[in-house]
Amino acid sequence: MNIIAFNGSPRAEQSTTHIMVSAFLAGAEEAGAKTEQIYLAHKKIGHCLGCFSCWLKTPGKCIQSDDMADLIQKYLSSDVAIFASPLYMDNVSGIMKNFMDRLLPVGDPHFEKDNHGDVRHIKGKANNPKFIMISNCGFPEQSNFQVLKLLAKRLARNYQTEFTAEIYLGAGGMLQVEEMKPLADEYTKLLKTAGAEVVRTGTLSSETSSMLDKPLIKDPGFVDTFIANMNEYMDSMIAANKPI
Questions:
Q1: How far apart are CA 57 and CA 140, in angstroms?
Q2: Any idea what DSSP says for residue 220?
Q3: Tens of pLDDT, residues 138-194
Q4: What would the mean pLDDT of 98-122 be, rounded to a whole number?
Q5: What is d(CA 116, CA 226) in angstroms, rounded to the nearest whole number?
Q6: Domains of the chain by range and CATH?
Q7: What is the per-residue pLDDT for 217?
């Protein structure tokens, strides 16, 4: 199995997204998969021009000359593609959105009805890989991923492929806090288990999925503590960055 993760964090290797993806891929590798993590922040990806040239003039090929041609080949060569992104404004990052939009050439411009009678584009000649969504956000509640959860299901429907797993982490920045290392280690170990499960069974067990959906800190008073601590931290950073 070939698993390729497309990391859409602007912080690339320094990101919480990187920590999550790396742990997942480590588990997948131990289970026998070939893996790769691609940092979209290091790639030149223009936004979609909406010109339809990749469908009408140069089928299967965008008229823009950037890194997307190679990225599309990487995407199509994978058995499982991971869309990994921090949560920005209730959605994926701008880098990831550009990447998703620029996957348009793999599709077909003609229309059909799906099993529910809704109109969508016909599947392209190439098979889309199964895919996984991985995300984290600064806010502590899992409810912040409502939009992204719906987007993931719509992507699977539009790409006519299988949505294998979704992993979301509120207050993800805690994975990089030294005082939280024991909790972070416990969580990344769980991510490794998830990666191995996907390779061995094709999906996540309900138990692993449930455990991944729980907050890192389960104390009912954590949210109030989070607000107080983060406001204090923000005030200190604002003060530190004021011009002298």
A1: 47
A2: T
A3: 999 999 999 999 999 999 999 999 999 999 999 999 999 898 899 999 999 999 999
A4: 92
A5: 43
A6: 2-217 (3.40.50.360)
A7: 84
| Phi, psi for 19 (deg, rounded to 5) | -60, -45
Q: Cα separation of 49 and 145, whole Å?
A: 28
Burial class (CB in 10 A: 0-12, 13-18, 19+), 102: buried
For residue 46, which of 23, 69, 13 has the smallest C-alpha distance? Answer: 69
**From CA 184, how far away is CA 187, in angstroms rounded?**
5
Annotate 20-89 with DSSP letters as a single string. HHHHHHHHHHHTT-EEEEEEGGGS--PPP----HHHHTSTT--SS-STHHHHHHHHHH-SEEEEEEE-BT
Residue 13 to residue 28: CA distance in whole angstroms: 19
Angle between helices 16-30 and 181-201 (to 10 degrees): 50
Distances (CA, A) of 106 to 33, 62, 125, 153: 25, 10, 7, 19
DSSP string for residues in 224-236: HHHHHHHHHHHHH
For residue 93 the two structure tokens come to: 């990052």
135 phi and psi angles, rounded to 5 deg: -150, 160
Angle among Cα 39, 76, 190 to the nearest 5 degrees reads: 55
Question: Looking at residue 106, what DSSP letter applies?
Answer: G
What pairing do the DSSP bridges indicate for beta strands 2-7 and 34-39? parallel
For every residue of 41-53, DSSP letters joined together read GGS--PPP----H
**What is the torsional sign of CA 91, 96, 101, 105?**
negative
